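Example noted here:
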Amino acid sequence: MIVRIMGEGQVELDDAHFTELNKLDDELLRETESGDEQGFRRTLNALLDAVRRLGTPLPDDSLEPSELILPSPDASLAEVRAMLNEDGLIPG
């Protein structure tokens, strides 16, 4: 799956990694819903770090259709809240 981190670029992630990412996404959803700014910031950074660590970066000149778009590391709680659906940021 091709994942875009807003403001950074794209990475290719194997579907096998989504179990780990969904745990962080679920935590981020809870923190966003409760307004826990400190927890939200910590978990958003952990989620993005995991995507960077587990994914293979695509070249900067490559523009593939992104199947998943994640917020930038400096996104506000309100900005991320607007991006959420009932599953969080990551479907499933």
In short: The mean pLDDT is 92.
